[in-house]
Design brief:
By secondary structure, this protein is α+β, with helices and mostly antiparallel strands. It is 25% helix and 21% strand. β3, α1 and β4 form a beta-alpha-beta unit. The longest helix has 26 residues. The radius of gyration is 19 Å and the shape is globular.
Length: 356
Amino acid sequence: MENQIVDGVEAANFSALNCIDLSNPDIQQSVSLLKQACLDCGFFYVVNHGISQEFMEEVFAQSKRMFSLPLSEKMKLLRNEKNRGYIPVFDELLDPVNQVQRDNKEGYDIGVEVPEDDPDAEKPYYGPNIWPQQDQLPGWRETMEKFHQQALEVARSVARIIALALGLDHDFFDKPEMLGEPIALLRPLHYEGQISVIFLQLYHRHCHLYVSHGNAISYYVGQSDPSKGIFGAGAHSDYVFITLLATDDILSLQICKDRDAKPQKWEYVAPIKGAFIVNLGDLLERWSNCIFKSTLHRIAYFVYPSHDCLVECLPTCKSDKNPPKFPPILCQTYLDQRNKNIQADLSIYNKHESET
């Protein structure tokens, strides 16, 4: 029997992922499926998460409106040092070893809205957002803020299942210094091409949401040419707690289950309408003492813990025979280290403005 062909790709080249149904009353079944996925590749689907398909389509539509603006208008909303605002094409470099140019994508970072006069606004990754004018993009801010809040609740639900899979109390990650008060960042992304994706990534007091048009954590289809080292987003693993990815029906995400294999084997992840694709980040791999995997991929909503969360080996993930592999580290310090390796220095944009 011949393999099924999807968008020109043989079914044999697809990765089969477990599917976690958040409406399933059998929590132990969900825990078992999630744990198996986390030990295997760190990727799985989440369905029946409570966000309507109609609203997700509205988020995609609003995202496309933003990226359709003239470049001169988008540059007026350029990101600042707190990761708020517009991210130009070629701003980031995710795979310096294999890329001949920086990532062929643009994005927009939206975090927790903290007024300038709030003491928390002094913290890295906190502060007021940079918003387009209401008459320029009517309803854009309201849509993004609503989706940000709903996606965070989905991420928290997933984190509770992760906690159980690690032998912890179900509310272990709900503590204020973890996901009770996360650094939440929503990031719409646009790649050259017609692929649409929404990401949410979670850190402790750090949560990122990505809405992408191009590709997810694999290289993007659009104007990418992997054979020449040109990617919408280079191969990488996310340095977050978890990532939630919503995508349209265009095939784009690829994962590599064994990053040390030579040659590496890349498999497509088929999009499922209305579902989130969830992947574990490097932060959770570190937290779990490498019991759970963070998988290399080429592309949300990103979720991180609080600034002050101390990421150290979880009590259920260490023993005399398996001591902690990493020293404790504050989430804020961890993020600063990782971001410096990826993002362009903002001064290059100031230099460009002065020359023009």
